[in-house]
Amino acid sequence: MLLKAYDKLKMEKNEDALAELKAAYARLETLSKSDENAVIPFILSAYIYGFAARDAGELETAREALNKALGLYTYGRRAEEARRFLNEDAR
Question: For the chain, what is the largest distance between any 2 Cα atoms, rounded to a whole number of angstroms?
Answer without folding.
Answer: 37
